[in-house]
């Protein structure tokens, strides 16, 4: 436990890092396989030894006396006791090959997630279930928001979620997960899990009933026991009023009205560049002003931008942003300063060409990778100069430019809850919006969020441009 962990210990908050954890598991399994084949050899040798010393028919005292009356038998017996037994004990105890594997496995265990990582993974699953209003019995079967995966959840997974929900006082949900754990646990392929992780079935039943009692009453005990015997797909009754769904949740569930098709055209006019290389441009909204562009970043550029090692990225948290509420981990991020690589400059110049804005000494480019159930709560990219007078020098963040570097098949939309807009990432697209009104005041309709990730590997590249640099370039939109 006390061994030093690597600097960046979280895996769950970026898919890139999770793939590293998978590599670690692969080598763990390699050593475990070696160890098992070593054990097999050992078992084989020991079995041979046992077979060479057969005493089955020496059950009575008379038989035994007869046996040792034979000097060859007695010699063998004494020699085995003197020479073979201690050798066997040493053989059973250790072996250099096994030691190496066991030590390696210890090292790998020390590199694997800390308790926080486990909590983060459970939180991610919690969001997926809650934000999208999914049924736990669907999730167990790999059915996520209408998308069928070839993966099923195990009984220990269900139990972990049950305990997690219970500890967060989500008692209806914990009861559902416990009931699911019970039913998955009965499946034959879970026999190992049964031995390793699961409390007895009775314990799970008890946890279910306690969860129900937390919100219900002892008078209804027989009803809860009846629920327990029902199919785990039957939703449990609400014993507490159901919470209303929030605007963000509605947006993430695809309940916003479809984005109005305002204009879709080839832009040939904003800058001289666009007359040579016209862009597929969609006007998404007039207030706030939002445009979406397609095919503005090449696959080769994306490959280069997303080729980052663990050491190069840091953990992004909400305290770096204007999110009001709780501190949460957002993603892994790499921030390139203004004098960053050649490719960064290319991208920044492209943003300037597309937007017609001067990107001068802009804020830095961030490359971001989201993780399991990764979520960015509602926030603004502007800070509001009236609240932060120190921004007077450079001005607030006039606009935000977002490159989508991957497709996100399920979940992970960028949404503007007040403006009721939702944009699904498409590889190579870019989203661009004004955070401020023409008079420089913040437009609160630009507050935005990222819906919890369900399926995929979400990479974006983001940059903001500051207001005062634009004095001579910003066209006045109305
Ligand atoms: O990932 C996204 O879609 C949005 C990122 C974002 O809002 C930000 O970096 O400020
Ligand atoms: Fe943002």
Question: Any overview of this molecule?
Answer:
With 478 residues, the chain is α+β, with helices and mostly antiparallel strands. The protein has three domains: 15-111; 115-229, Serine Threonine Protein Phosphatase 5, Tetratricopeptide repeat, CATH 1.25.40; 252-470, q2cbj1_9rhob like domain (Jelly Rolls, Sandwich). It contains 15 helices and 17 strands. The protein has a nine-stranded antiparallel sheet. A four-stranded antiparallel sheet has the order 9-15-12-13. It has a two-stranded antiparallel ribbon with strand order 1-2. The two termini are 61 Å apart. Its EC number is 1.14.11.2. It is found in: Endoplasmic reticulum lumen. This is procollagen-proline 4-dioxygenase. Belongs to the P4HA family. Keywords: Dioxygenase, Endoplasmic reticulum, Glycoprotein, Iron, Metal-binding, Oxidoreductase, Signal, Vitamin C.
């Amino acid at each position: 436990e006390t061994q030093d962990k690597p600097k960046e210990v979280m895996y769950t908050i970026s898919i890139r890092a999770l793939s590293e954890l998978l590599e670690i598991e692969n080598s763990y399994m390699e050593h475990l396989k070696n160890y098992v084949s070593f054990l097999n050899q050992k078992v084989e040798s020991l079995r041979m030894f046992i077979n060479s010393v057969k005493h089955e028919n020496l059950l009575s005292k008379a038989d035994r006396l007869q046996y040792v009356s034979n000097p060859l038998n007695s010699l063998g017996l004494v020699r085995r006791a003197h020479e073979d037994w201690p050798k066997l004990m040493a053989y059973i105890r250790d072996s250099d090959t096994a030691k190496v594997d066991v030590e390696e496995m210890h090292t790998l265990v020390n590199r694997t997630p800390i308790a926080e990582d486990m909590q983060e993974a459970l939180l991610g699953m919690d969001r997926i279930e809650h934000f999208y209003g999914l049924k736990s019995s669907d999730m167990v079967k790999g059915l996520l928001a209408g998308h069928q995966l070839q993966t099923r959840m195990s009984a220990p997974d269900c139990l972990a979620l049950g305990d997690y929900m219970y500890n967060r006082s989500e008692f209806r949900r914990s009861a559902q997960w416990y009931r699911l754990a019970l039913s998955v646990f009965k499946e034959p392929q879970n026999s190992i899990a049964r031995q390793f992780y699961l409390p007895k079935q009775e314990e799970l039943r008890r946890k279910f009933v306690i969860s129900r009692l937390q919100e219900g009453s002892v008078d209804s005990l027989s009803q809860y026991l009846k629920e327990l015997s029902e199919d785990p797909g039957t939703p449990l009754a609400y014993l507490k009023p159901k919470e209303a769904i929030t605007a963000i949740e509605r947006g993430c569930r695809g309940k916003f009205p479809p984005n109005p098709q305002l204009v879709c055209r080839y832009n040939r006019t904003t800058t001289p560049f666009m007359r040579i290389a016209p862009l597929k441009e969609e006007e998404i909204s007039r207030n706030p002003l939002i445009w979406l562009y397609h095919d503005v970043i090449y696959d080769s550029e994306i490959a280069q931008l997303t080729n980052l090692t663990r050491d190069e990225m840091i953990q992004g948290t909400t305290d770096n942003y204007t999110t009001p509420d709780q501190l949460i981990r957002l993603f892994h991020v790499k921030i390139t300063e203004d004098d960053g690589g050649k490719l960064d400059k290319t991208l920044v110049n492209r943003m300037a060409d597309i937007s017609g804005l001067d990107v001068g000494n802009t804020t830095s480019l961030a490359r971001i990778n989201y993780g399991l159930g990764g979520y960015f709560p509602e926030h603004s990219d502007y800070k509001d100069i009236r609240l932060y007078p120190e921004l007077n020098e450079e001005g607030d963040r006039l606009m935000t430019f977002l490159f989508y570097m991957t497709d996100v098949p399920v979940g992970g939309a960028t949404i503007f809850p007040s403006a009721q807009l939702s944009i699904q990432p498409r590889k190579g697209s870019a989203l661009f919006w004004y955070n401020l009104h023409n008079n420089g005041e913040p437009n609160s309709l630009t507050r935005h969020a990222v819906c919890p990730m369900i399926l995929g590997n979400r990479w974006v590249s983001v940059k903001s441009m500051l207001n005062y640099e634009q004095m001579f370039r910003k066209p006045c939109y109305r």
